[in-house]
Design brief:
The complex is a heterodimer of chains A (306) and B (417). Chain A is built from 13 helices and no strands. By secondary structure, chain A is mainly α. Chain A has a single domain, classed as MetI-like (MetI-like fold, Orthogonal Bundle). In chain A, α6 crosses α7. The longest helix of chain A has 40 residues. The two termini of chain A are 41 Å apart. Chain B is elongated and about 85 Å long. In chain B, 39% of the residues lie in helices and 21% in strands. A 6-stranded mixed sheet of chain B has the order 6-7-8-3-9-10, sandwiched between helices. A 4-stranded antiparallel sheet of chain B has the order 2-1-4-5. Chain B has a 3-stranded mixed sheet with strand order 11-12-13. In chain B, β11, α16 and β12 form a beta-alpha-beta unit. Classes of the chains: A mainly alpha (306), B alpha/beta (417). At the A-B interface, α9 and α10 of A face α5 and α7 of B. Bound molecules: adenosine-5'-triphosphate and magnesium ion. The site of adenosine-5'-triphosphate (ATP) has 12 residues of chain B, from β2 and α4.
């Protein structure tokens, strides 16, 4: 009596399998097509990254960091980190990882911001999307690898797909939060002067939600980096693959080098995108006293959701 | 029902017959109920249930209950009431920022209720501007961009809208602040930006929801004075919401007093004070110091005796003896005020065999305009030996203010309170 009765069995796994096979059988062509386009995009980005001589890349990133963060020391530290990644022998792998991150984030933003806007506009949409996002974020990230594998096979395309699915929630959420937190007084005044939905969106909501959205993009980027590493389990090369190989060979030294490279990459990306988010915030805060507060709230919300 | 009317408006409401002052804003039997199934509140079962009971029984909040009023062209119409009485809801309903549950609304000769979404947006862009208590400025726009925003939405070109915005900013005294962001401005200045944004559109109608409530008293008085000046110059139709009686009395051509969603009285300021419609209005007016409310026009009386310039000193002496007066005001043929003649002056003129009462022979007591509040008359009344003459803009003598009349006005009001 203590064991759960065996005859009660809801075969969700079967249903999911059936659905998946149905998709494969009927839409396989579509996914092949998407996959080949995705691969082209990824290759173009990676080639572009690899094409740049390493020292040019380091200087460029250093200058970018200096501009974003405004501190020469921080910029120098970032340049040194990038140099060390190369010195560990992982330059090509790092560029591969970076290319997948860039493409995933670009897709996430292109998809996530409109979805966030829809969520902010409509309570029903929000009520549907929110639990889905919750589920997506609590789901162990490995689970995304399975459908990615089935749809796109092995390689960087399924890794990118899994990365997008895993990393997209913050940008959706924070777009929604940012728009919903725009002061109703400003919205009402704009409406009173004859702003329609699009005027409101482009003149008022998006500019005022920008700090929040940028925080969302920053979080999405960090999550994408984390997922790319896991994506190496389905054949994505790059830094994650090196870690995986080190585990298989129980090679502590190699694992350490590859792991540190990932950490460096994470720090570099985080500092730069974060600095951009902050810089924009300050700019807007000059325009409104309590905007700083708004940003805090958005970050708070981000922390809650993230 | 609106089609034919809409066409007429397109050709310009000003072209309507100019005999009777045109009604620019009209509300008729407007209801607004917040909550679920608001229509049921209009059925006889709930229609007259008091606001509190209604909320307990149905969960619906009633904000407007059968509100009707009409604002004429060029009028400054004040809506006054305590917090929660429905003022904001009413003024928002005029733009359908709040959808009325029932009733008819005509603004600038358009049927607001009948408009579809597109027409409504066009109407907000063209006809009406609104000023908000919390300013509602766009924080990421400069002062200039804010002032020009209404014109941007209307689709005006950049040069044109900026030129007009600069003009409007000049009108409200903000020239030179164009490139600042609202956050770097004081509250009073931000509200001026709000006003400039409203004026830049050159709207037929201006809606103002407690525009000065957020400001400290000194700035507030200053803004009120400026609005009075501006209104004298521009002659807009203004609907002005306030919870402050002094503000209402100072600004309003007519005042509507709201209570629990109803309009309980619509009248001009004097009437409101002299004839409060019910206890509620009376309670409202109680805190209005009568000294700041009553004007010279309210308390002035006819002079006991009045001398004309052409009357010689002998006639004057006879009349003064007859009335037992020691002095008299003197006016000319058109009743324009000239000065005061005392018995001494008359005697001297009689000796000099003058035939008329010449201005230069008279004493001059400073006259006041009829809208002077009696608080400002205290000094003159108490220090001078003569009554205070009240004259109109042509210098004609309208009446005199006696100390006793002022005391009466103050004491009756106290007795009521
Ligand atoms: N969106 C809303 N939902 C529900 N009830 C509302 C809403 N807006 C206003 N009310 C209610 O309608 C009534 C009238 O509100 P309104 O804001 O018009 O009052 P007011 O006279 O402008 O007050 P105040 O002087 O405080 O601004 C109040 O009881 C308020 O609670
Ligand atoms: Mg209000």
């Amino acid at each position: 009596m203590r064991d759960f009765p065996e005859w009660i069995r809801i075969p969700v796994a079967d249903w999911v399998d059936t659905g998946m096979y149905w998709i494969l059988a009927n839409l396989g062509g579509v996914f092949d097509w998407i996959g080949s386009i995705g691969l082209q995009v990824l290759l173009v980005v990676e080639r572009a990254l690899v094409f740049v001589p390493w020292w040019v890349a380091i200087i460029a990133i250093g200058l970018l960091a200096r501009r974003a963060i405004g501190s020469t020391r921080a910029a120098a530290a970032i340049a040194v980190m990038l140099f060390l990644v190369g010195a560990f022998g992982y330059w090509a792998e790092a560029m591969n990882t970076l290319s997948v991150v860039i493409v995933s984030v670009a897709f996430s933003v292109a998809l996530g911001i409109p979805l966030g806007i829809l969520m902010a506009w409509s309570n029903p949409v929000r009520n549907i999307v929110t639990p889905v996002l919750d589920a997506m974020q609590t789901m162990p990230s490995f689970v995304y690898l399975i459908p990615a594998l089935m749809l796109f096979g092995l390689g960087r395309v399924p890794a990118t797909f899994a990365t997008i699915v895993y990393a997209i929630p913050p940008v959706i959420r924070l777009t929604n939060v940012g728009i919903r937190e725009v002061s109703p007084a400003v919205i009402e005044a704009s409406k009173a002067f004859g702003a329609d939905r699009w005027n409101l969106l482009f003149d008022v909501q998006l500019p005022l939600a920008r700090p929040s959205i940028l925080v969302g993009i920053n979080q999405t980027t960090m999550m994408a980096l984390a997922m790319v590493v896991i994506g190496s389990m389905i054949g994505n090369r790059g830094l994650g693959m090196e870690v995986l190989l080190a585990i298989n060979r129980v090679n502590i030294g190699q694992g350490f080098e590859a792991g540190i490279s990932i950490v460096f990459l994470a720090i570099i990306i985080d500092r730069i995108t974060n600095a951009f988010a902050k810089a924009k915030t300050v700019e807007v805060a000059m325009g409104e006293g309590d905007d700083e507060e708004e940003h805090e709230e958005a970050s708070g919300a981000a922390a809650r959701h993230g | 029902m609106s089609d034919s009317n809409t066409d007429k408006v397109e050709s310009g409401p000003e072209s309507e017959d100019a005999c009777s002052p045109q009604v620019m804003v009209q509300a008729e039997g407007v209801w607004k109920v917040f909550g679920r199934n608001p229509e049921r509140i209009l059925t006889p079962r709930y229609r007259d249930v008091p606001k509190k009971d209604l909320q307990r029984r149905t969960g619906c909040v009633i904000a407007l209950r059968d509100v009707s009023f009409a604002v004429k062209s060029g009028e400054l119409f004040v809506i006054m009431g305590l917090s929660g009485s429905g003022k904001s809801t009413m003024i928002r309903t005029l733009l359908r920022l709040v959808e009325p549950t029932a009733g008819a609304l005509r603004v600038a000769d358009k049927d607001v209720v009948a408009m579809d979404h597109e027409e409504l947006i066009q109407f907000r862009r063209d006809k009406v501007s609104m000023v908000f208590q919390n300013y509602g400025l766009l924080p990421h726009y400069t002062v200039l961009e804010n002032a020009a925003y209404g014109l941007k939405l209307r689709g005006n070109h950049k040069e044109e809208r900026e030129a007009r915005a600069i003009e409007a900013l000049k009108t409200v005294g903000l020239a030179g602040w164009e490139n600042y962001y609202p956050a770097s401005l004081s509250g009073g200045m931000q509200q001026r930006v709000g006003l400039a944004r409203a004026l830049a559109k050159d709207p037929a109608i201006l809606l103002m929801d407690e525009p000065f409530s957020g400001l400290d008293p000194l700035i507030r008085r200053q803004m009120q004075d400026e609005l009075v000046d501006l209104q004298a110059e521009l002659g807009k139709t203004i609907v002005f919401v306030t919870h402050d009686l002094h503000e209402a009395l100072k600004l309003g051509d007519r005042i509507a007093i709201m209570r629990d969603g109803r309009v309980v009285q619509v009248a001009d300021p004097e009437e409101i004070l002299n004839n409060p419609h019910d206890e509620y209005v009376k309670a409202f007016t109680r805190d209005a110091s009568p000294a700041r409310v009553f004007t010279a026009a309210t308390v002035m009386e006819d002079p006991e005796i009045l001398l004309y310039r052409r009357q010689g000193p002998l006639t004057a002496r006879t009349m003064m003896e007859h009335q037992r007066c020691e002095w008299s005001f003197v006016v000319d043929r058109k009743k324009r005020y000239l000065g005061v003649a005392t018995r001494d002056v008359i005697e001297r003129l009689a000796k000099e065999k003058k035939h008329i009462l010449n201005e230069e022979d008279l004493l001059y007591v400073q006259p006041v305009p009829p809208d002077t509040v009696i608080e400002d008359l205290f000094g003159q009344v108490s220090s001078g030996s003569y009554h205070v003459p009240v004259t109109d803009e042509h210098g004609r003598l309208l009446g005199v203010v006696r100390p006793r009349a002022i005391l009466n006005a103050l004491s009756t009001e106290d007795a009521d309170a």
